[in-house]
Design a protein that fits this description.
Length: about 250
């Protein structure tokens, strides 16, 4: 479970008895930065012909940032935005027979360690695997989409076309943090939820075989005036679970 607090610029129109309608309010040229850190751990027990079974522990650490820029606002109060990564780093670590092995992927390339010793390094210029994720290429890539005032993605723009260039990562994960507001008016303390599915991040050459199901639960904590703009303070809790990807027949 992950918990946090968001401050979102909204057009929170007042209703009777202190109820409000939450709506997204962006201005052309505004920029927002999201940062996500995630850690996944697993233990794998292997049956062997010897007396003792072999156990391996694995851990994946993900550290990424992405920016959202409002390009323009339409007459129907929808928002055209440009989204792109500014940072993406991943490390896969495993311990087997008491030996720690790590693979680290960032803007420099891919490096493999045994203990603290670097045993192999590849820069992106020397990686030809078409499935491999090129971090420099990813950081130079931007996609466009359109949001409505309720936070819903109404047009994914060029995301699907760009996704073909990055088979080892789900670009849609940059939309995880987008809060979808309830359609009806709510009062402070009200709660609502939204479920988002994403492919489990994988190292280059290892296509995702599982889907992470994120159950986002929101609570309107307060309505505040910040820099002369009305903002919603929203408490967020995320419960996640894995499910297997259905194989195509």
């Amino acid at each position: 479970m992950v918990a946090g607090l968001l401050i979102i610029s909204t057009a929170a129109s007042a209703q009777k008895d202190n109820w409000v309608n939450l709506r997204l309010k962006l201005k052309p040229g505004e920029n927002f930065l999201y940062r996500i850190s995630a850690e996944t751990r697993a233990s794998i027990l292997s049956k062997t012909s010897q007396k003792n079974d072999r156990e391996e522990t694995q851990q994946v650490n993900l550290d990424m940032e992405y920016g959202l820029e409002c390009i323009d606002v339409t007459e129907s109060e929808t928002f055209h935005v440009r989204i792109g990564y500014t940072k993406y780093r991943m490390e896969l670590a495993s311990v087997r027979d008491g030996i720690m092995r790590r693979s680290r992927m960032d803007e420099r390339g891919i490096r493999h360690y045994e203990g603290d010793t670097l045993i192999l390094e590849h820069t992106w210029e020397h990686i030809s695997d078409p499935i491999a994720l090129s971090i420099p290429k990813l950081l130079d890539t931007k996609f466009l989409c359109e949001l409505d005032a309720g936070g819903q993605i109404i047009d994914r723009g060029n995301l699907e076309e760009l996704q073909k260039q990055f088979p080892a990562i789900d670009l849609g994960q940059m939309l995880w943090q987008q809060v979808v507001f309830p359609e009806e008016a709510i009062a402070i303390g009200a709660e609502w939820s939204n479920i988002v599915e994403q492919k489990q991040p994988s190292m280059p050459g290892s296509p995702a075989t599982r889907i992470l199901v994120n159950d986002y639960r929101y609570r309107l904590a307060d309505i505040k005036n910040i820099d002369e703009r009305k903002c919603a303070e929203i408490a967020v809790t995320v419960n996640s679970k894995l499910k297997e990807v259905e194989k195509k027949r």
